Amino acid sequence: LPNHNIFIPSDLSLKSVEEKVSFPSMLRKTAFSRLWYKPDTMFFTPKAYIKMDFHCPLSQSSPESAVLTDVFTSDDPPNLLLLAAYDAQVAGLYYIVKPNDTGFQVTMVGFNDKMRTLLETVIGKIAEFEVKVDRFSVIKAVIFQAGTVFLSTSYELIKAFPFCHQEAMIKEHENFKFRQPYQQVLYYCSLILDDQAWPWDEEFSALSHLEPSDLGNFLPHLMAKTFIECYFAGLSSALLSFLLIAKISISGNIEPNEAKSVIKHVEDVLFNAPISACKPLSPSQHLAKRIVKLEKGLRYYYPAMCLNNQDENSALLHYIQACLLYLFLSENTFNTQCNAISIFSSLQTHQDNVKQNVLLQLLALVGKQPAFHQLRSVEQLGYIALLRQRNDSGVRGLQFIIQSTVKDPANLDARVENFLKMFEDTLYQMSDAEFKSNVSALIDMKLEKYKNIREESAFFWGEISEGTLKFDRKEVEVAALRELKKEELIDFFNDHVKVNAPQKKVLSIQVYGGLHAAEYQTIVQNAPPPQSCEITDICSFRRSRPLYGSFRGAVGQMKL
């Protein structure tokens, strides 16, 4: 007979919620953590959703730190808890520990009755992590015997067994070069725009020199300064009672004053233990992902040969930085839609421009089908030809992505600009009825109900993680859309997207395939065209450019 599964739920009862709450509220904030909570008022299932971000400044301080954080979260606790993870999954509990841009993240979803047990186990293993050199070989053998059921890519295999699988590590280093060209332009675009991103070759170089002692020495420093951002949704009284005692969360069935008086378990384990090395972050140490600000009226372009010289495809990413974060001087206090908090600023406050956001979304919706029709069907540039939105930590824009053997990237860039000239006529000729139809379609998309607690929580967590906290974003944007006029859409296009628009900010990523090697040599040897600037060194370019502010900058200013 199989062993007893401690994660099988025994209590599937639903707890009534006296007050229907539409948005999360911040119920507790200390120097160690910040807690957000929203009861389930829509799905009425005995399930819970937990998200915990561990903000660790050291995690992205260098390529070595980024790789070590990746190894830590990919190797443990999941592999230490391999059997527990399987038992939890059988019982309807799922969890994942993964790195992110500020440290690492723990996510759990499933039946809430035994989520306490799983949460205690995961947090305990994080706190008690110990590097054991000999166990990597054992885990490797188990995974291989199981047919690598739990690992889907060779990169995951490398991260799980970095000290006993050097061949796989080298193989993955080579496999990066075989990514499709459209994947490479996406990588280069993120590397150029994200101030904290490290080049893949630097990370793999660091990975190849790692020893078990490096990870053992790194972890105490990683956790030495930590802040935990928590979000809990749909918890029943059984788990909530634990979370109150565990110092993680509170529910609608528990009075806030009662919850505040209880010592939280996570803080006890990580910060208040007798031998704990974890200390709270000082205000100056909170991380904020920041994005490079492109110059108005200037076109940047980055040409590169495809990493796989046998690949005949070339690719283009034509990025237009459009909707931006606005900063204004203010001594006033503005309230977020979450009734629990206000954000105070004596110098700068970040403002999320709703109208520009919806104008960008509407423009992307209106242009999506014409772009595909012209670039893919009419001109037949390649199977991958699309227009979509891009959002980099609140800095929004449009991007065209084309992969082709027919044209080199410089010509593809010209075809995109030619399409924008054609699309300008489309906008001017759009009837009022067609405009209203597109607006209605976008409104319907925004008003579509969440299918489950994970979808709902993903939206709210996005607002929390970016620091925007506009929990009623959909309702506000729908209201803005209903007031929108066609002339405003045209003005937005003329200011930010139209060819040679004075406010336009463009970044063209060009990866040249084997068929277009000669064209690559030509473009790197020629002088940049007027109003253009070639990026020859990505890291130098990032250091030379100003950065947009981050909504996360207000973390330390949040008040109950």
From TrEMBL:
Peptidase M16 middle/third domain residues: 1-204
Keywords annotated in UniProt: Metal-binding
One Gene Ontology term of the molecular function aspect: metalloendopeptidase activity
UniProt cross-references to Pfam families, sorted A to Z: Peptidase_M16_M, PqqF-like_C_4
InterPro entries, alphabetized: Metalloenz_LuxS/M16, Peptidase_M16, Peptidase_M16_M, PqqF-like_C_4
One Gene Ontology cellular component: mitochondrion
Name of the molecule in the record: Insulin-degrading enzyme-like 1, peroxisomal
Organism: Dichanthelium oligosanthes
Lineage: Eukaryota, Viridiplantae, Streptophyta, Embryophyta, Tracheophyta
